[in-house]
Design brief:
Layout (H helix, E strand, L loop, with lengths): L1 E8 L9 H14 L4 E8 L4 H9 L5 E5 L5 H14 L4 E5 L1 H5 L1 H6 L5 E2 L5 H12 L4 H7 L27 E4 L2 E2 L18 E2 L2 H13 L4 E4 L8 H14 L4 E6 L6 H8 L2 E9 L3 H4 L8 H14 L3 E7 L6 H12 L5 E6 L7 H5 L6 E2 L7 E3 L5 H19 L4 H11 L3 H14 L5 H15 L3 H22 L9 E8 L1 H9 L5 H7 L2 E11 L2 E6 L1
Helix pairs in contact: 1-6, 2-3, 8-9, 10-12, 15-17, 16-19, 18-19, 19-21
């Protein structure tokens, strides 16, 4: 039997790695050997469906399975329709979160023969055996039911058996456990399973050694709450420090399970933490089966801050009971804790979640098709949702992609504006200044904000601070070429050497800088020499 398993990613990146299909391929190889020949095919949402279908058909499959998520549902069904039209007898099926959550609708699609819901490794082995024994796709559709894998130790590793080569992708997705102990209404993760199951430490250690030997630079840990089981989490962190100290790891954690020792262990490796804040209002979060203790949250984040661990937050706007003003307060609370990035999302009412069951009672208006985004609620009008979206856009452009972390707080104080107000103003500024170079866009925006308040001197200095940090980080964080080091040139109102010297000495206030740095218009060049930043005033 020839089987193709398809992963459709959002875009090319080190995260665009087909771990799910590879897990299925490993399970099939482990059971059937060469009796079932399996190929894993990567595709992308922006790729024309006809091109994807042609690549799949070129492999001559007898069956094709799709890993379906909310972002690739439309693309998956379009490809499936083309495959069915070209080869009516080809068996097509889907699995993954979207197919599991909306099974009836996916199975009703004329191009799909059946759905394998839930965790797929055991289920696909049984389904393929039934097909080999002569069962019809209709019989498989009637038979298949979710069945969580109870013993994760029984599953082969696609990394260790060679099915998946992380070096081909530049990164790795790393599964250390399955299941989620929480029951957040907007999430499908914990439905149908209770508690968590862990990958054996022997396999964890072997996979980590493989990543290190392959020179993998980025590893994305898939556990929805990595630090829920604190003893095991600390064991993994010590293992990483000992075996893969040069690799950068990305973790999703909950603040309530952080402690000082864990913060120190995170600090001992290269990592970034993502923390699901969602809202800074306990009354809002209780509407989605979560809770929030602001004092405890701040105390736990302080542990990370003091240890020097990079961290970011997630926020959601449009939550039941929230409002535009409440969302602004959440943004300002989050920014007050100086995250390395702040990711903001519009609420989606995903099929299969408890929120989908309660949305009508909560009077949530939302899209009937993917991505199922909320349009309005009794406390969050459509107009307010659009305003929140602009704040999210301004935050992403200015703070995240704009690398504003080092200087944002320095400029925010004298402006006497909340972060949410600055983000919305920056989104408005982008509407009238499209296509400009990012650093120059930031400089002109902040300079205009200070000038509007009659603070032209501070505005000029703010523009210089942004240029100092912006051009420095662009060189230090970007790809280097020692044979021809990049050069970045900018105009300044003040000598940038004086600005950087004072900041390095501990000056953090814009007004303090203004008293100490004289006006001195000049041109300056930023370059790299053997990895070190060189600043030359012309």
């Amino acid at each position: 039997m020839k089987l193709v398993l398809v992963a459709i990613h959002i875009e090319p990146s080190p995260r665009a790695l087909p771990l799910g299909p590879a897990m299925l391929a490993s399970a099939l190889r482990d059971t059937f050997g060469e009796v079932v020949r399996t190929w894993v095919v990567d595709a992308f949402v922006a790729e024309p469906p006809a091109a994807c279908a042609a690549r799949i058909l070129a492999l001559g499959p007898e069956a094709v399975g799709f890993s379906m998520y909310v972002w690739n549902r439309t693309q998956t069904l379009a490809i499936a329709a083309l495959l069915k039209a070209a080869r009516p007898g080809l068996i097509l099926f889907a699995g993954g979160p979207e197919a599991t959550a909306d099974r009836a609708a996916i199975q009703a699609d004329p191009s799909m023969d059946f759905v394998l819901p839930g965790e797929g490794e055991v289920l696909i082995v049984e389904a393929v055996q039934r097909l080999l024994d002569g069962a019809t796709p209709e019989a498989i559709a009637a038979w298949a039911q979710p069945a969580p894998v109870q013993d994760l130790a029984a599953l082969p590793s696609p990394y260790l058996d060679g099915t998946l080569r992380p070096a081909d992708y530049g990164g790795a997705l790393w599964e250390l456990s399955r299941g989620c102990p929480f029951t957040c209404d907007f999430c499908f993760e914990a439905r149908g399973t209770a508690g968590t199951r862990r990958i054996p430490m022997a396999r964890v250690e072997a996979e980590l050694a493989l990543f290190e030997a392959a020179g993998i630079q980025e590893v994305f840990v898939l556990d929805p709450t990595f630090n829920y089981q604190k003893v095991q989490a600390k064991q993994v962190l010590r293992l990483i420090a000992a075996k893969a100290s040069g690799t950068h790891f990305f973790f999703e954690v909950r603040s309530e399970f952080l402690d000082r020792e864990m913060a120190s262990l995170f600090a001992a490796i290269h990592c970034t933490l993502q923390i699901g804040l969602q809202s800074a209002h306990d009354d809002v979060l209780r509407n989605i089966s979560r809770s929030f203790d602001a004092e405890d949250f701040e105390a736990k984040i302080l542990l990370l801050h003091e240890a020097g661990v990079p961290y970011g937050f997630d926020l959601i706007y449009g939550l039941p009971g929230d409002s535009l003003e409440g969302f602004r307060e959440s943004v300002d609370f989050a920014m007050g804790l100086v995250p390395n990035h702040l990711d903001i999302f519009r609420l989606s009412v995903l099929p299969g979640t408890r929120l989908a069951e309660t949305a009508a009672g909560l009077e949530l208006a939302y899209e009937a098709a993917n991505p199922y985004q909320v349009l309005a609620s009794p406390s969050f009008s459509a107009q307010d949702m659009a305003q929140a979206g602009r704040i999210a856009h301004g935050c992403d452009a200015l703070y995240n992609h704009g690398r504003a972390v080092p200087w944002f707080g320095m400029l925010l104080g004298p402006l006497d504006l909340p972060p949410s107000g600055v983000f919305q103003a920056f989104a408005d500024w982008l509407d009238t200044h499209p296509g400009a170079e990012p650093i120059e866009t930031q400089r002109s925006f902040f300079q205009s904000q200070f000038e509007a308040r009659g603070e032209a001197v501070l505005g000029a200095l703010a523009a210089d601070v942004i240029a100092c940090f912006g051009h420095s980080s662009a060189l230090l964080d970007g790809p280097g070429d020692e044979a021809a080091p990049p050069v970045r040139r900018a105009s300044f109102h003040h000598d940038p050497r004086g600005i950087m010297a004072l900041i390095e000495a501990g000056t953090t206030g814009l007004e303090d800088l203004a008293f100490s740095v004289p006006l001195q218009p000049c041109e300056a060049e930023f370059t790299l020499a053997e990895g070190e930043l060189v600043l030359r005033v012309l």
